[in-house]
Amino acid sequence: MTSRASANGEHVSRAQAQPIEFYDFAPSPGVCPYAQRAWLTFLELDLPYEHKLIEPSNRGEEFLSVYRTITQDPEANGKVPTIIDGNFKLTESAVVVEYLDNKYGKPGQRLLPEDPEEHALVKLFTELFTTLFNSVIFTVLRADTRESLAEAHKQFDKNLKKLDDYIKANGKDDGGDYFLGSRYSYAEVLTTPFLRRAAVILPHLKEYSPVEAAERLGLDRLSRWYKAALARPSSQQSGPSDEQLQNSWGKFNTPLKD
């Protein structure tokens, strides 16, 4: 492992350090999209980690004790990702990603840009994505008639256009297809788990492919971004199989009545 500089300027070497403990849900690492965000970050920053899988239905006293110590909530059920980095403990996916990036990311190559404007635009993109993309996945899955499914498809099309417009207006288009052009960033880390799930689950369950929709609608910038994010090696190496995704997300699907 190579040495890295922390955000406060201290030299941090991951070569000699203990692996970061990374709590994730069984039965398969990354089956939780929020945990996959942390996994992507470990891979991108080349950090040593120990994957600790816990059963969602029986989270165990050890894990619950760690989580409750972090949140100061003695009744909390415990969420992933949760990490232990030496004596420091943390939870919540976006916070974990930022912490790891700030502490171990190389200056000039961090997932969150140092430039204040780029930093803000990347974070705003992830907020908009949650509203325009993540939420509509469930709108499509909950559609229970052909009519409501058609309306959900139209809403997804409309939202994809908004995301395409945002990337064209505020992203970069130099040397690559990521939000920041050639630079992979926080914009991809926070969204890739949901891009993958939508690409795998929706065609299988509800006759809709966001990848194909972006192409059909002529949303070239969004289409290139989507494909680049999924093709990233860290995306290929993290998360469950397509079959596992289809099986695990079937519980969110409402069958059509007609």
UniProtKB/TrEMBL annotation:
**Which residue ranges have biased composition labelled Polar residues?**
233-251
Q: Which InterPro entries does UniProt cross-reference here? A: Glutathione-S-Trfase_C-like (IPR010987), Glutathione-S-Trfase_C_sf (IPR036282), Glutathione_S-Trfase (IPR040079), Glutathione_S-Trfase_N (IPR004045), GST_Omega/HSP26 (IPR050983), Thioredoxin-like_sf (IPR036249)
Q: Which domain of life is it from?
A: Eukaryota
GST N-terminal domain location: 22-108
Which protein is depicted?
Answer: Glutathione S-transferase
Domain (GST C-terminal) spans 115-256
Q: Record's SUPFAM superfamilies?
A: GST C-terminal domain-like (SSF47616), Thioredoxin-like (SSF52833)
Per the record, what is one GO cellular component? Answer: cytoplasm
Start and end residues of each stretch annotated as Disordered: 231-258
PANTHER family from the xrefs?
A: GLUTATHIONE S-TRANSFERASE OMEGA (PTHR43968:SF6), PTHR43968
Taxonomic classification, please? Answer: Eukaryota, Viridiplantae, Chlorophyta, core chlorophytes, Trebouxiophyceae
